[in-house]
Write the structure tokens for this entry.
Amino acid sequence: MFDLVIKDGEIVTACDRYKADIGISEGRIAAIGTGLAASDTIDATDKLVLPGGIEAHCHIAQESATGGMTSDDYRSGSISAAFGGNSCFVPFAAQHRGMGVTETLDLYDSRAQGSSVIDYGYHLIVADPTEKVLTEELPAAFQRGVTSFKVFMTYDLMRVDDRQFLDILSVAASHGALTMVHAENSGMISWVSDRLVAAGHTQPRYHAVSHPALAESEAINRAISLARLADAALLIVHVSTPEGAGLVADARMAGAKIFGETCSQYLFLTRHDLDRPGMEGAKFMCSPPLRDEATQEALWRHLQAGTFSVFSSDHAPYRYDETGKLANGPDATFKQIANGMPGIGLRLPLLFSEGVIKGRITLQQFVALGSTNAARLYGLDKKGSIAIGMDADIAIWDPKATRTVTVEDQHDNMDYTPYDGMSVTGWPSTVLSRGARVIENGALIAEPGHGQFVARSRIDLTGHPGGKVPELDPVTNFGARIAP
Ligand code: URP
Ligand code: ZN
Ligand code: ZN
């Protein structure tokens, strides 16, 4: 007997789809077969039974360097994620200058513990790579199961220079951690921004102008070069341009340990959304900024071709009020408005509707992009697939359910959604986390605190050979050996 059986659904993994029952015992998948029985069953007739989504880029209970707090905490953020078909998420734990890394992780533990309805981990943001951070605290974070570190190449209070970036890449590589990077050229952005503001072009729409595509491709090229010098694994997050995606694809073809991510906003919104009256465009400000329709099409091609390993929401919720977007008043310039927009509950439904239903990607690609690849890339060993022994993290989807997006349906702590009014086909109806119902038929069942911290393992770089550049290879550099 099992604790729970999901009956008569169509199971979909990153490679297969077939009809079968799933037997769950003690939070794990114990059997896959036909005619399985238990006193507790879920009827999944005419439904798709998928690995629960893994949202691996979201900002939850996170202060920006200037002190603004995201509107979602681990309770509201995880609930919204669960309603959107996710059973696990990995928000950021942001070190700010002057803070230690251990102190940062302790702080985020206090924010997450007892609050989340789904399992979680953190990516550590490193903004102050002191000697102590590099030699003691990053290795300790890795031991704690925080195996991915994000750096910024832009934002004055967060960015690291190339040498610091190399130090972080090198420490990460020696522990099997993955470095993630926000790749935009800081000088290009501030140079254009200052000229726009001086000329009186201060409205939100000029945010898009102030972040040229070239600023992204220059920084991605530099980031990839630094990763290749350190022979380290690097994920370029929120890629927003075909040029940037092309650089990721070329590096992957060359065998470098490079991975790419794109996000909902770059496929489903455009910079024309910024062009709304008054300050309304602020709702659509994020960095990198929204681009154009041709870019959307090009990014779909890269998604189809496998350039991007993961697809994320980059949920960075700042309300359209004085706690968020309007913190600097109604006349603030685009430079003074918080970057980021919400979308944690819509990442998977939008990708399902626009991707699977419209025939752009297969169901298996949907599973890979929304769950499996993140599990493998980020070392969530027991998640991301439906197989015996895996955590019973499962999302049951109704592929025919149709809804129009509203802010009320998001279950987050936001007062707007940038996807308002969009028509979406295919919704998750029930979500399980380690066999427990989190959402059932559209209602929240789990209590805050059900979600547990997941210690993650090292990145598996099989198939990404990398290699030393000639100058750092003792075979070709006159025998010089240098410490990693
Ligand atoms: O504008 C954005 N994406 N804000 C969130 C922070 C980041 O850079 O990911
Ligand atoms: Zn970023
Ligand atoms: Zn982000």
Residues 265 and 290 are 7 Å apart (CA to CA). The first strand starts at residue 4 and ends at 12. Residues 182, 237-238 surround zinc ion (ligand 2) (CB under 6 Å).
